[in-house]
Specification:
- The strands form 3 sheets. Strands 2-1-4-5-6-7 form a 6-stranded antiparallel sheet, covered by helices on one side.
- Strand 1 and strand 2 form a beta hairpin.
- Helix 3 packs across helix 5 and helix 4 crosses helix 5.
- The protein has 9 helices and 15 strands.
- The chain has 2 domains: 168 residues, Rossmann fold (3-Layer(aba) Sandwich); 154 residues, RecF/RecN/SMC, N-terminal domain (Glutathione S-transferase Yfyf (Class Pi), Chain A, domain 2), CATH 1.20.1050.90.
- With 394 residues, the chain is of the alpha/beta class.
Length: 394
């Protein structure tokens, strides 16, 4: 698939931007701070309803704008679809498909698929578990858009359950009324948690072979990359509620959602006193982690800088392979976005990455200078200046 038209109104630094794009490689070139990343960020937002740079929507709206509009035409095979998202800080976002009546923003998920590489991806390897959980949750929504609701339901229930636990802790006494209400939230959280965990486990199981292949493609193949899901349902939860580092959660993959639900209820009961004492939920997908391993050692803390970059890129590239295989229909592969990546890589990794992604239907690249882009990705250059673009050149 590819974007052949993009329009931004009040988005980041753009009061108005209208841009025509083509299949193949498009390189956005300009000094830092001119707005290159804002352009590709908007396309990523259409695919995920989130930014790879910030956790909330407010920074996406220009200082003098009350809302932001992102419009694009997505071509998938022989079908073109017009998408529009209206970003309203503090209010519900709205969307339109083919200029029809407004719908919920999440109703557009799945129409545009992107895989975005960015320097922030180093956090997938070096950062805390929340970065890896977000990566996996974004992937399951890309694979099955209805899981956006699964994710939202779990977050809503977790918030309510934590509020109850905190209330009980602040009051200094856990009453029968607290217990009765907590049991209700236990069942809601077990149901939502089982759905989310099952989706994560299945996605990671499908991703891992692609991750291994991508890492081998990006390196000399001397080390094997693999991933393991660490769940608070397996082993003892520590006092901080972290998933036990030595517990492999592979056994959970074969369980049904009902069996996972039962496991959650058992875990809630086993950790009841600790959760009341802490005033937070210590068990659940919000405390899980994905451990990345290179060779015989955990990547976090042991991988070199180059290995860390290659593994982070392999996670994104592996997700691209998975999404491409998930829908092998011609013209349905995801759009690849490489945001300021090549400046961070040595010549060898630049060349290997460029040769791998060059065959995608659409590749959007940002760079401060055109010389950072390998020859394999030579394509249309779009020169970005503050607030707009200059005429494109080949």
């Amino acid at each position: 698939m590819y974007v052949d038209y993009l329009s931004l109104t009040g988005f980041r630094s753009y009061a108005q931007l209208d841009l025509s794009l083509t299949p193949g490689v498009s390189v956005f070139v300009g000094p830092n701070g001119t707005g290159k990343t804002n352009i590709v960020e908007s396309i990523g937002y259409l695919a995920s309803l989130s930014s790879h740079r910030v956790s909330s929507d407010a920074p996406l709206v220009g200082f003098d704008a009350g809302q932001a509009l992102v419009r694009a035409r997505i071509v998938r095979g022989s079908q073109a679809t017009a998408l529009e998202v209206e970003i309203n800080p503090g209010r519900a976002n709205r969307a339109r498909i083919n200029r029809a009546n407004p719908v919920r923003a999440r109703d557009i998920l799945g129409i545009c698929r992107t895989v975005l590489f960015a320097p922030e991806d180093l956090a997938l390897v070096k950062g805390d578990p929340s970065a890896r959980r977000r990566f996996l949750d974004d992937l399951i929504v890309s694979l099955v858009p209805r899981h956006a609701a699964t994710r939202a339901d779990y977050e809503r229930v977790l918030k309510q359950r934590n509020a109850l636990l905190k209330s009980a802790r602040v009051s200094g006494r856990f009453t029968s009324a607290h217990e009765a209400t907590l049991e209700v939230w236990d069942h809601h959280m077990a149901e939502a948690g089982a759905q989310l965990l099952a989706a994560r486990l299945q996605a990671l199981d499908r991703l891992t072979p692609h991750l291994q292949g991508a890492y081998e493609d990006l390196t000399d193949g001397s080390k094997k990359a693999c991933s393991t899901y660490r769940s608070t349902l397996v082993g003892e939860v520590d006092d901080d509620g972290a998933a036990p580092g030595g517990a492999d959660s592979a056994e959970l993959l074969g369980l049904t959602q009902e069996e996972l639900r039962a496991r959650f209820l058992q875990a809630f009961a086993a950790n009841r006193k600790r959760e009341i004492d802490r005033g937070i939920s210590l068990v659940g997908p919000h405390r899980d982690d994905v451990e990345l391993i290179l060779g015989q050692a955990p990547a976090k803390g042991y991988a070199s800088h180059g290995e860390t970059w290659s593994l982070a890129l392999a996670m994104r590239l592996g997700s691209y392979y998975l999404l491409r295989d998930d829908d092998p229909t011609p013209g349905s592969g995801p759009i690849l976005i490489l945001d300021d990546v090549f400046a961070e890589l040595d010549a060898g990794r630049r060349g290997r990455l460029a040769s791998i992604v060059a065959g995608a239907e659409q590749v959007l690249v940002t760079a401060a200078v055109g010389e950072d882009i390998p020859e394999a990705l030579a394509g249309e250059q779009i020169h970005v200046v503050p607030g707009g673009i200059r005429a494109a050149s080949s």
